[in-house]
Amino acid sequence: MLIKGPKKFPVGISNITNREDINQNTLMDFDIISLESNQTFADETQLERAILLIQGKVILVFADQEIEISRDNCFDYSPWVLHLPKGERFSIKSVDQSELAYIATENEAYFPPRLYSPDECNSENRGAGTMRETSTRIVRTVFDYSNAPYSNLVLGEVIGFPGKWSSYPPHHHPQPEIYFYKFLPENGYGFSQLNDEAVVTQHNSTVLIVNGETHPQVTAPGYAMWYLWVIRHLEGEPYITPIFIDEHLWVTQPDADIWPPKN
Length: 263
Hints:
The protein is mainly β. β5 (about 50-60) and β6 (about 65-70) form a beta hairpin. About 40% of the residues are buried. It has no helices and 22 strands. It has one domain (about 1-250): Sandwich (Jelly Rolls), CATH 2.60.120. The chain has strands at about 1-5, 10-15, 30-35, 40-45, 50-60, 65-70, 80-85, 90-95, 100-105, 115, 120-125, 135-145, 155-160, 165, 170, 175-185, 190-195, 195-200, 205-210, 215-220, 225-230, 245.
């Protein structure tokens, strides 16, 4: 499901989807927080939360700590992510114009609040050396089941290069997932394939993947694409690895003959 976003989010909190919407069925609240200089946002809901700095400079106050963090942009720099258990109060004071993603979900487990720094983000070049580099992209994983088994979330980012594919080969999983996009320049676009249908992704748009659809992505030539991805574990069925479509797995082999030689 595609949710087309505005060219620019208004100051304040913009809700995109929520965990109680039975039609969207993401099991997550997903908001964009847009703050001007010296504005403050505070929260202590009974939900697990992850707050990712997309761009800007803010002061975070949580667990008796006060920490200033900044990110010039989401394309060149890995993220800061604040991860909190239910009931843990935090506040954000914007030092300059800032934008953050806010994700929340049900989770009764307690875990210590943690601020993930850019240096702790696992960043890898996937697709390199295969498929004639047509699926080379940067995948950043902040936390998943391997380093945060107490969480009900998995969170990361992807940088898609102009004209190249990501989330490829086509794969699926039963756990719901949210993709949120930025493009550089902002008039850029791409396509998200959901099973046999394709939707046009643009700056500030969101795709909800909630019915186990395969979901490869492609970026239009001339434009870079960033997207935040967040997966919600299911009870008794955490997300570990995706399920790839067998008929397309051959393209990942280093010696795959992508363009057969002439006879």
